[in-house]
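Think of the structure tokens as a kind of shorthand, similar to the way a musician reads notation: each symbol stands for something richer, in this case the local conformation of the backbone. In the example below we present two proteins back to back. Begin with the first one, reading the sequence and then the tokens, and try to describe in your own words what changes along the chain.
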Amino acid sequence: VKMLGEVGDDSVEITPDMQNQTLESKPLWQRISIMLAGPLANILLAIFVFAGLNMYGVWEYTPIIGEIEPESEAAYAGLEPGQLIVSVDGVNTPNRQAVLERMLLRLGETGEMSMTVTYPGDSELRYNVNLVLEDWLKGAEEPNPIEGMGIRFIRPKILTVVGGVLKDTPAERAGLMVGDKFLSIDGEAVKDWDQWVDYVRMRPGKEIELEIERDAQVELIALVPEPVKLEDGSTIGRVGIYPQREPWPDNARFRKRYDFGPALVNAVEKSWSTSVTILVSLKKLFVGEISVKNLSGPIGIAKVAGDSARAGVEYFVQFLAVISVYLGVFNLLPIPILDGGHIMYYIIEGIKGSPVSEKAKWLGFQAGLVAIVFVMVLAFYNDILRL
């Protein structure tokens, strides 16, 4: 899609009577408005989608600490299981998403992160802690700030009971069934699901004797984990089952519904915070505080879209809204060839009182195209490696 008379477009011969129809013949404010229209439409779409989800009702997860990793930043700061995180760096964090967003803004940095915590049901007593950062998760691929801090939020307990058996897997061939409770593996008592997973991963192609409880009877089952090769070249074992979980604790999540006004305000705030996170992340990529391996392209977007669709319509629609914010913000970047690049030229024109020369524009558009192509190639490369 091109505007009539756009720089570098010779596909249409512009006759004298068409001059007043070209983009450059329009007043400066109209040209800026035209370039703003697309990105603003993206952001407005996201706001109305977020607002609709807020009125429909969204699940919010309370940031209650379930576990603290030993010898982690959180452990050294004195954080404890059972505490509720109420703010990070002075900004209120009513849910886990808010905690994640505040932590994302500190990736790759050195200094202190302040955090205020309390205990659920005791909002009067609050504790302030400072977590020490030193090039925090700098260069990490797909960093998880919360786990990187040594924090695991409260979650449903994973039981050592089979919740599902995948088809055509060692588990199905060995006869494992939903409801089987693990008692021991190779004579060693099974304490938790993680122990079972670690044991299987370390034994690709080796027979395991599993003691289970089924219908109040103890049975022995032999199975051989199939070898699975990972991206780094290592091989792990996999049997093809997933566990049962306990229900969510009452204080760990709640469904929140908003009236129209508050829903719209919250949607604007969510779109704004997402935009800030995008811009800060871009800055961190540029200065090297975040690894370029975190860049993702169409393949990565498609994968996340598929994952969110499988999680449910609510998650998929929310993903579309987030992508819409990304499109709006990226298009407003002051890079020639993007809408933001055009706006930059128009602002320069308004300041100097005359248009930027055609040669300067053309060189800028070429440089912008090279930059976009470079980023896209890098994003595709990262996506393919992740596959």
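Once you have a description of the first chain, move to the second and do the same.
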Amino acid sequence: MHQKFDKSTEKAVKLASEIAREYELDYVGTEHILLGIRREGSGLGSRILEDRGISEARIKEEIDRLISKSMHDTWVFGRLPGSPHFRNVIAEALEQAKRLESKELRTEHLLLALLREEGSVAFKALRALGCKFEDVEAEVLRQTAA
């Protein structure tokens, strides 16, 4: 099964690039994907974060805290500038979409993938904000079953 990005995911990934530029960076990291999901606003991934009281401002605050605490090396690969974690998240999101039998890659798949990418800034921020893979997965399953 070949997944394509739905409109919300396309917008979230585009926003991730814009957010990376706001940070004056020349790569897109997991933290930018997370902020892009939340800023996008209409996808299930964004709604799950909103339902948990996790605003873009809270995410940004946590990311800024993590980044200032510890800077990680990143490198750019190919035409899509992204950190190694970024590429892992996209690959994992595709796996999540397949596992959940979705024909499109959606923001909820990106959110689940971020919660699998241990060591990334987004993973640490989500955990600090109280998100766990199992809880988010249960919410995704509940909301997509309806």
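Compare your description with these statements about the second chain. The mean pLDDT is 85.
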